[in-house]
Amino acid sequence: MIIYPAIDLRGGKCVRLLQGDYDQTTVYSDSPVEMAKKWESCGAKWLHVVDLDGARQEASNRAVICEIAKALSIPVQTGGGIRTMADIEELLKGGLSRVILGTVAVQNPDFVAEAVAKYGDKIAVGIDAKDGYAAISGWEEVSRWKAVDLALTMKEKGVKHIIYTDIATDGMLKGPNLAAMTEMAKAFGPGVIASGGVGKTSDLVSLTKTGVSGAIVGKAIYTGSVDLTEALSVIGGDDVC
Known about the structure:
Elements: E1 2-10, E2 13-18, E3 21-29, H1 32-41, E4 47-51, H2 52-55, H3 62-71, E5 76-79, H4 85-93, E6 98-101, H5 103-107, H6 109-119, E7 123-130, E8 133-136, E9 141-146, H7 147-156, E10 162-166, H8 178-188, E11 192-195, H9 201-208, E12 214-217, H10 219-223, H11 228-235
Parallel strand pairs: 1-4, 1-12, 4-5, 5-6, 6-7, 7-10, 10-11, 11-12
Antiparallel strand pairs: 1-2, 2-3, 7-8, 8-9
């Protein structure tokens, strides 16, 4: 299982939200590039970057995101506000290895198929679930799509990677929703990356038993409740997800 340290960007700074609430923002660094280098130096094989401003279509942190990608030797995936082919091309040309489609996947599944046809496994889909239903627009709206049904539709469109976030556990450090992750991994198969709730290394160990191929760790590595180097040594993994 691959561990993906997370960098969430708002106003060009490295922040974390609590359960996706933009009014509960904690700033952890004014230099996202240096933070990214820190996680790479710990042994991370991938980095996960989210453009929180882009997710709400308020602004864009793409210049910083591309700067991060070019500064690292490991691959970087990013999501938030990516809704057109031009957005995808800009980020891939900027050095990103994988882009994550969120809101647009819910609103226009055929666009995802078009993107996958052109870019293959450089395209992933982010599914953020609230009470089992996919949320969009920076988690501020809940769609009529059940998360698992959306995942299966994305699989039909050729998507190989799903980033599955349980909003209720995000930023709480109280453990991931293991039942939801197991259900998603069973339905979608290989390529599910779990996000939300990791508060200690044992949570990552528990996730390895759900069938997911990767796990995103955010707040826990910033507060120190998870030591990234230690977690990487415990979990191991490969670089296929």
